[in-house]
Specification:
Layout: H1 3-9, E1 112-116, H2 141-147, E2 152-157, H3 159-162, H4 172-187, E3 191-196, E4 201-202, E5 205-206, H5 214-228, E6 234-238, H6 246-263, E7 271-274, H7 276-279, H8 284-287, E8 301-306, H9 328-343, E9 347-351, H10 358-373, E10 378-383, H11 404-412
Parallel strand pairs: 1-2, 1-10, 2-3, 3-6, 6-7, 7-8, 8-9
Antiparallel strand pairs: 4-5
Helix pairs in contact: 5-6, 9-10, 10-11
Length: 425
Amino acid sequence: MTLGTRNSARRWLSILAFTLAAGSLQGCIGGGGGGGGGSTTSSGPQPTQTVTEEQPLQLITESPTQPTLTSPSPSQGATSGTGESGSNTSSGSTGNVVNKDPNLGTGMLELIGLNIAGAEFTSSELPGKHNTHYFFPREGDFDKWSLKGVKSVRFPIKWERLQPVLNGEFDPTYAGLIDTMFTQATRANMAIILDIHNYGRYRKNVIGSAEVPYAAYQNLMERIAKRWQGRSSLYAYDIMNEPYGDADKTWLVAAQKGIDGVRKYDRQRPIYVEGMSWSSAARWATHSNELLKLNDPMDNLVFSAHLYLDSDASGQKYSTDLTVDPMVGVKRATPFINWLKKNGKRGQIGESGIPDDPRYLEAMDNLLGYLQQNCIPMTYWAAGRAWGGYTLSAEPYKDGTDKGQWKLLEKYLGKGNCSDYGPSA
């Protein structure tokens, strides 16, 4: 199918927006984010202040009278589910009937989003304690960013907390907190990209190993789609964060299982597929080319690369860089964008972040301009109340003033005149 034909056939799909970290050895708080395909030896950024422990959030669910986000229209033959309950009445359901995106074709694809991190923190503590080892948004957190104009959020979660036993039921507390997160997002008119932040692994074992069969991963994605496909604030599934190392060898098969799992219950929403080698944008063409073999029956895949601007592209060496090439981000994005153009695929940057430093702000400005030119959305790494003094955080300074990172992102917010994911021809 030609690119033009495919895009025409996909006109019922949502184009809300979004856009903006490294592995069990690179992630924040021992398994969060802030990687991006560079060094594999550092322990990752740590929060620098203690968050006061609170009582868990009251678990709430959406009601039909609450405001809803526009979402993709169903394909022919799709059947409706049960509204906003997050459950499904039939194991064969293909998803709820949801509203068509009024921005379709109007040039309103949002190119800037945020990673709201915290629920995946502290992978060394499983299951861990809410508000001690991991964190969900407080009431009002989404509203704060919504008032600033942010409409899309990539939300990382930890597989082991959600499903403590392979093929088993979801943990009621953790799954309930995700329920509440979706409700908060709906009230704030936010679109959620739900990210399985596990680096191609479960309890340190690679998907496709004897310990973690492919079928167990498909089971996870089936359960996720079945439970949350009825949520109006769910925009897309990012089926796995940054496979690397041994997981590179099994990721093609695993990714297809993940796609199959989602499509059993949700035949509408985009599926984000990250690449091998920490989903590196710079190394995409050489490490992730075989992802072209993936098959989505709804032809609604978005390939998601990560891109950091420090010397080793890990997101963790900014403090040691002496010189900064102002075009470093553009140079690292180019192989990924060229691959998308060559193969007629759609893409986005799932993670990129910088410190509040004029050298990196200039390089990020050049990168964002290049991404906007090619209609490639980005979700910035990162935001969230638990980051403390994390240098890449877009959260305001303690005195409430905005950081340079946010001021730069705001420059591109709501801009671009893009009607669909790029790259543009």
